[in-house]
Amino acid sequence: MEANWDDLRLFLAVAREHSLSGAGKLLRLDPATLGRRMQRLETALQLTLFAKSPQGYALTDAGQSLLVRAEKAERAMRAAVADQPVASDGLSGQVRIGAPDGCANYLLPQVCAAISDQNPDLDLQIVALPRVFNLSRREADMAIAVSAPTAGRLVVQKITDYRLHLAASDAYLAAREHIARVQDLRQHRVVGYIPDMIFDQELDYLSDLGVNRVPLASNSVSVQINWIRQGGGVGIAHDFSLPAVPGVLRILTDQISLTRAFYLIRHADDQRNPRLSHLAQALTAGLRAEVVRLEALA
């Protein structure tokens, strides 16, 4: 008996995530239900596809063989979708976008809302996680990153540069010693990333400033910004985030000014997909315009 595409789609998720819980999150499917589906698939094929253990689901030789066939079927399905023309009345369907939480919180909501206004049949999902997304495992249809990957079958497009500066709340600055030089930061409480949870070297801002201790640390940009807003301390902030937090000011702008970039990353197999290509164009244009608009207000 041959497996149908829906069976293979679920199998691919479990094979790539090595667990029912991880695959269930991607598929929005209960792990118990997913486990029953995998058991049914094994019964139908009369094969043992997974070696199950407390550490997860590892592929057997039969599972590895099915994985090759399933990925071939996946490529065929994506190619079939890619051959369908984009409807003249707009984009439709569901697209999941992965992004670091700074971009996801302060840029993507308004950009995606504008795209949604023009495409009412399009369902957009933003996955905001402080880590690198794995498009090969289909965690998202496209992802935004702060550095360009150099490995994998990926298409990488630079979206735009953005700027960051040291920032603090006006209440914090009024209550503390004046900050005139970078060296003065040693006398102040610093807000930043948890050092061992920095997932991209482009985000390791504070080490370049000689800051070795971070009393208030989080892996989330939004938490850091809120700490700064509440007068918790001084930290590096995206210029585009500052209009959302009145009372937070840039400081030492003549001494500290950082520039980073956002990149749009897509799987190479999606290059021929007109729906995703049209969305990528709209997303890139929208993000570029929004960064310019917000940085002018900072």
TrEMBL record:
This is LysR family transcriptional regulator. Belongs to the LysR transcriptional regulatory family. Keywords: DNA-binding, Transcription, Transcription regulation. Residues 1-60 form the HTH lysR-type domain. It comes from Roseobacter cerasinus. The keyword Transport does not apply. It comes from the Bacteria. The lineage of its organism: Bacteria, Pseudomonadati, Pseudomonadota, Alphaproteobacteria, Rhodobacterales. PROSITE patterns: HTH_LYSR. PANTHER family: TRANSCRIPTIONAL REGULATOR, TRANSCRIPTIONAL REGULATORY PROTEIN. GO terms for molecular function: DNA binding; DNA-binding transcription factor activity. The keyword Zinc does not apply. Pfam families: HTH_1, LysR_substrate.
